[in-house]
Amino acid sequence: MGSFPIFLSSILCCIMLPEMTGVELLRRVKSFPRLRSIPVVLLTAMEDLESKNAGFAAGADDYVTKPFQPVELCLRLRGLLRLNEYHDRLEEVDNILKSMVAIVEAKDVYTKGHSLRVAQLVAAMGREVNLEEEKMETLYRAGLLHDIGKIVVDSGCLNKPGPLEPKEMAVIRRHPETGAVILGQMQRTAPIVPLVRDHHEHLDGSGYPAGKRGQEISFLTRLLSCADVYDALTSDRPYRKAMPRESALGIIEAEVAKGWWDLEAFRLLERVVEMEEGYGHAGVNY
What we know:
With 286 residues, this protein is mainly alpha-helical. The chain has a domain at 110-282: Hypothetical protein af1432 (Orthogonal Bundle), CATH 1.10.3210.10. Helices cover 55% and strands 5% of the residues. InterPro entries: CheY-like_superfamily, Cyclic_di-GMP/3'3'-cGAMP_PDE, HD/PDEase_dom, HD_domain, HD_GYP_dom, HDIG_dom, Sig_transdc_resp-reg_receiver.
């Protein structure tokens, strides 16, 4: 088993084999991480549901009943290979995006881990209101990638210990739009573009980059904004030390009163960080 070539594109396996069943062989094959994603088709003359369920449980992707037409087998394999290629491309996109986040965090030494913490926190907030799976995935991914636009911002600007000059602030404030442009190029990240673009908008219209207000800002974006602000306040920055939880929540509540953040989003944030006492930066897994 250890000598399986890594260039396998698919595996055809009969259920009835001389020394073990095809299901047992399949379990062994799937125990090797490098082989787990390879499509497997089981060939069988048996029609019983129990055998098929055992095969699928072991990791089979399809069944072909013998006797079969060669064209049928070719069509099944072609469909599985196309699906596998699609998944490989999605994984490649995800890896590229993760690398870009790592570059951003390497440039801004004070925000290492910020994106992951925001993703974990905002996902926990979404769970509190029983968001459907698709929206949960959107929230989590937006949390991971909300600051990706900072990849074009100079590290000296990101790490400056004192107040930013107006020109420097203008550069920083372009990062939501830059992130939206980057993520808008890929179908996989298209759903999170509005969240990334709008996470610094305020309900009263005083935010950036577009000065959106009220219903122009989605509920998911409002959740993301609160999670982002909370983690920023409870993390070290070049110009200040991390704040304790109570102080951070107090500041955000005051900004809710000013008309910046959504009250429901703040209450969800408050509930989650109180439940996850010491969320601080242990985080909550999605």
